[in-house]
């Protein structure tokens, strides 16, 4: 089911500077929580800790009651799907990039995921951006298109936990709504942590946490936070 708990989490990249100063929150199974706050507040650091890119300096993070520092990085990451700000693609077809993480998936499933993410038209092509390949046979993808590849990959993987890091930030407004509905589809009934800069993308979240300088300073529903401001 994938409940996430941060219990008094402390962290700094350097010992001299604490970035997270005792952060506590819970994402109950199947619920969605968003973290908002100014740039540099520590939002992305929270997702990096959840992925065990770094280990906490104090407190603990649990998934389904299990301290993530006690299990392998691989098994933590296997439970979590992410739609990052910047997606690094492999030098292989878009279909390969979508299938990565669930190599057992059949062709139909890959096509279905690509359709939901609205990239079905070019899944047999190669992404551009690989040195000499640019301008030759590589397809030059926009940031938004790369994000859709990441969304398709996540739709296919269907992980118990989803982390959306500014998921729709690189998209133009025309496609943003369509992508948002694809994301709503993939996050429905899935434990979801959204790292957001804009309130417009998190209207459907069950709880919103406001992070400032490494501390949660407000929490509540979208409506409650609007009433406070
Ligand atoms: P946000 O996502 O809220 O913009 P981050 O979590 O990315 O904030 O960063 C929080 C703070 O940690 C910032 O002051 C940032 O400069 C610092 N920081 C982020 N990554 C590193 C790193 N790898 N090494 C040192 N400091 C970092
Ligand atoms: P984002 O989380 O927005 O994708 P980054 O992880 O690259 O971006 O960095 C977030 C912030 O942390 C930025 O302000 C960046 O300048 C800062 N930062 C990243 N790496 C380091 C580092 N090694 N030392 C200090 N600050 C860093």
Give a verbal description of the structure.
It is found in: Cell membrane. This is ATP-binding cassette domain-containing protein. Residues 4-229 form the ABC transporter domain. The chain contains seven helices and ten strands. The protein has 229 residues and is an alpha/beta fold. Strands 6-7-8-3-9-10 form a six-stranded mixed beta sheet. The longest helix has 15 residues, at 143-157. One adenosine-5'-diphosphate (ADP) binds at residues 40, 44, 85.
| Chain-averaged pLDDT | 85
DSSP, total strands = 10
Query: In angstroms, what separates the terminal alpha carbons?
Result: 34 Å
Give the overall shape, derived from the CA principal axes.
globular
Structural class: alpha/beta
Taking strands numbered 1, 2, ... along the chain, how are they ordered across the largest sheet? 6-7-8-3-9-10
Order of helices and strands: EEEHEEHEHHHEHEEEH
Entry keywords:
229 residues, alpha/beta, six-stranded mixed β-sheet, 7 helices, binds adenosine-5'-diphosphate
């Amino acid at each position: 089911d994938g409940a996430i708990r941060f219990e008094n989490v402390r962290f700094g990249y350097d010992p001299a500077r604490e970035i997270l100063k005792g952060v506590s929150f819970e994402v109950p199974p199947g619920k969605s929580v968003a973290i908002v706050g100014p740039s540099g507040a520590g939002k992305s650091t929270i997702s990096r800790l959840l992925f065990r890119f770094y280990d906490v300096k104090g407190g603990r993070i649990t998934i389904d009651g299990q301290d993530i520092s006690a299990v392998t990085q691989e098994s933590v990451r296997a439970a979590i799907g992410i739609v990052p700000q910047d997606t690094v693609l492999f030098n292989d077809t878009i279909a390969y990039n979508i299938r990565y993480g669930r190599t057992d998936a059949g062709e139909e499933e890959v096509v279905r995921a690509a359709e939901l993410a609205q990239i079905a038209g070019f899944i047999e092509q190669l992404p551009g951006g690989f040195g000499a390949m640019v301008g030759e046979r590589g397809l030059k993808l926009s940031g938004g298109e790369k994000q859709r590849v990441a969304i398709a990959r996540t739709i296919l993987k269907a992980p118990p936990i989803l982390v959306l890091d500014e998921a729709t930030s690189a998209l133009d407004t025309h496609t943003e709504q369509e992508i948002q509905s694809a994301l709503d589809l993939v996050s429905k009934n899935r434990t979801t942590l959204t790292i957001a800069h804009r309130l417009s993308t998190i209207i459907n979240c069950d709880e919103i946490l406001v992070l400032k300088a490494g501390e949660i300073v407000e929490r509540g529903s979208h409506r409650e936070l609007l009433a406070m401001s």
